[in-house]
Amino acid sequence: MASISEFDLIEEYFAGQIVASYGVNLGIGDDCALLTVPQSKQLAVSIDTMIGGVHFPKNADPELIAERAVRVAVSDLAAMGADPLWMTLSLTLPAAESHWLAGFSRGLFKAAEEFNLSLVGGDTTRGPLAVAIQVHGSVDPGQAMLRSQARVGDIIFVTGSLGDGAAALAVIKKELDVGKSAFSYFMSQYYTPRIWIREAHALSEVSRCAIDISDGLLADLGHICKASGVGAVVEAERLPISEPLRKLAEPDAALAWALTGGDDYQICFTVAPQQLQALEELRERHRLDITAIGEIVRGNECVCLSNGRIVECDNLGYKHF
Ligand SMILES: [Mg+2]
Hints:
It is a single chain. By secondary structure, the protein is an alpha+beta fold. Helix content is 36%, strand content 25%. It contains 10 helices and 13 strands. It has helices spanning 6-15, 62-80, 98-115, 164-172, 180-191, 197-203, 217-228, 243-248, 251-260, 276-286; strands at residues 24-26, 34-35, 42-51, 83-93, 118-126, 130-139, 155-159, 209-212, 231-235, 267-271, 290-297, 302-306, 309-310. Strand 1 and strand 2 (34-35) form a beta hairpin. Helix 2 (62-80) runs parallel beside helix 6 (197-203). The structure holds magnesium ion (MG). Magnesium ion binds next to helix 2. The site of magnesium ion has 4 residues, from helix 2.
């Protein structure tokens, strides 16, 4: 197969498609993009790297690899309550294969359009398959939800349901045998997880502290506890578990995935008691799918109680492929 130059790659697959977004004075094609940050906003910046064979199967559909990479990167903007603006892409490929690139760019722009995110620059190199996406977003000064802002007495909430990401990984790795409809449910949970960008923006009106769940609830809530100098107690019986996961796994396995499995990309956030009424109004106005799961307490430990007893988890979060 003929390899094409870096310049051709970028031109052919990435430069042609423009997603309208704020403030792109100069996009792909020069040494740098030139961007105008919306007036009186802060820029929120985050980067995620995904390695083939570690964060996704090497032989996965390139369209899905791209969609997942963008969505996972955007999830970090959601965690701060930021609005997406721009992204840059670093793509490392063993070979420049046009069919693969066509699929990848299709997935990339599909996700970009969903989040109104412009691709403003990129870099392609030859090497083992890896995708790094940097996202830029905007947020009102002082409005970003920070890991350091949980306070004793705050109520802990999560969006959506927990454990599907880890169950999906087991399904993809064929550790679990599931029927056709469950298979497609978990495939979409893994490759095109719902990203709570608009909802998180709304939540930033009443929450000062949030994180997206990429490494597992206890691990990520642990990051909040460490940054805020507090402890957390969540109740096993209150954790939202999806219907497909209930059908797939025994209650203990579903609970373990909900607590320690990664890749859920739900938003875990805390709300002060005096903001609960305002949250209730937001919930109704935006039809938010959120569940109260526990409380911020004194101390420095993050634990899950089931009928008053601590649930022991031997591996806290994050699994490699
Ligand atoms: Mg994150």
